[in-house]
TrEMBL record:
Single Gene Ontology BP annotation: regulation of DNA-templated transcription
Protein name: Transcriptional regulator
Family: Belongs to the ros/MucR family.
Residue numbers spanned by region Disordered: 141-168
Single annotated GO MF: zinc ion binding
């Protein structure tokens, strides 16, 4: 019954949240930034307490992102792939996306890219592919590499010579 009578005070909630934010040891801020943060926190808390939760949520989803470069320019150089977030070149976008809090699927959705849009530069991918083939990845056990067809048996197919001649 006591919970029904509870009326949240936006000023107290905003103050408590701001104090908790300032108590975090990884928060680095100047004294001049605190009033602005407190004001923003009060606006957010009062809109949530006031029942405008439905109005606040669509504003976040309606945000339109403009890409730093076009998709064509992003893939123009085979050595790098240019990020649509900041316009900088990368060999692979996966780590860059994770630092921006995104997955490749979210990145593709945000900028309206197709599902087959690459996250890795073409030459980097080709170099990794060649290295994997060279060391034998992707082959089934017992399967030989086709380029070794020079007529000589491989070391694995030769009989081992043992010191015990009577056993043969």
């Amino acid at each position: 019954m006591a919970d029904d009578a509870y009326e949240p005070n936006p000023i107290e909630l905003a103050t408590d949240l701001t104090i908790a934010w300032l108590a975090n040891p990884s928060t680095r801020t100047s004294a001049g930034d605190v009033p602005a943060f407190l004001g923003k926190m009060y606006e957010t808390v009062s809109s949530l307490v006031g029942g405008n939760q439905e109005a606040a949520a669509p504003a976040v989803e309606a945000k339109e992102y403009t890409p730093a470069v076009t998709a064509r320019k992003s893939l123009g150089n085979p050595d790098v792939i240019i990020s649509m977030i900041d316009g900088k070149p990368y060999k692979t976008l996966r780590r860059h996306l994770s630092t921006n809090g995104m997955t490749p699927a979210q990145y593709r959705e945000r900028y309206g890219l197709k599902a087959d849009y690459p996250m890795v530069a073409a030459t980097y991918s080709e170099a990794r592919r060649a290295m994997a083939k060279k060391i034998g990845l992707g082959r089934k056990p017992g399967q030989t590499y086709a380029a070794k067809a020079d007529g000589k048996p491989s070391a694995a197919s030769r009989k081992r010579k043992t010191g015990n001649v009577a056993a043969e």
